[in-house]
Amino acid sequence: MAARPADSAAVAPRSDADERRKRILSAARALFSERGFSDVSTIEIASEAGVARGLINHYYGTKRELYVEVVREMVRFRSQPVPEYVDGATPQARTDESIDRWLEMVERNREAWLAAVGAEGLGHDPEIEGVLDEAREEATTRLIQVLGLGPAADAPPELHAILRAYGGMAEAATREWLERDRWSREQVAAFLKAALPELVGTAYEAIPGKTPTEPKEKR
Length: 219
Description:
Helix 1 (5-35) crosses helix 6. The protein is elongated and about 60 Å long. Helices cover 70% and strands 0% of the residues. By secondary structure, it is an all-alpha fold. It has 2 domains: 13-68, Arc Repressor Mutant, subunit A, CATH 1.10.10.60; 72-205, Tetracycline Repressor, domain 2 (Orthogonal Bundle).
C-alpha cells in the first residue's frame, strides 16, 4: 500500500535535520583541522556548512561541545585503522596496514588531532580525555586481535599495558613528525612498524613475573 503524502512529509524534516547535522560536523572538522579550535568561529563553521549559525547551537550547543563531537568522530576513524583479521594475512602485514591508515588519518586531520592530544587548543579537557581514553582502549583491544593474541578479554594485563604504552609512543612519535618536523611520514611509519614486534616480543619477555602470551590464530 502506497504511503500517504502526510507520511512522506513527516519523514522529510528528520532527513533534512540529519543532513544539516552532518554538514555542520563535516565543516567543523575541516576547519578545526586546518587552524585549530581557538582560530575557528561558529560563524565560519555555519558559512562553510551552508546553514544558519543558530543551527549550530540548536544541534550541538557551544563551540566547545561541537569540538568534542568532532574529536569523537575523528577517533572513531582512529580505532578503525586496526584492520580486522583477514585469513592468510600475517600479523605483521595487518599491523603495517593499521599503521599506514593511522598516519593517513592524523595527517588528514592534523590540527584537530594535535589539539585533541594536548598539543594546543582545549588540550587536557576532561571530556576530551575521556573520549580519547575510550578510543585508546578500543585500539589496544583490536591490536591484540590483529597480532593473533586475542580475544582481548583473555589477554594478560601486561600485554594490555604494553600496547597502551605503544599507543602513547605512537602519539608522541607522530607529534615529532607533524608538530616538530623532526622526521618524515615514511620515517615515522618505519619506526612504528619496527617497534611493535620488539615490544610484544623482546620487551614483553623481559617483564618479570609476566603472563606468557600464546598466539590464538593458526599460522
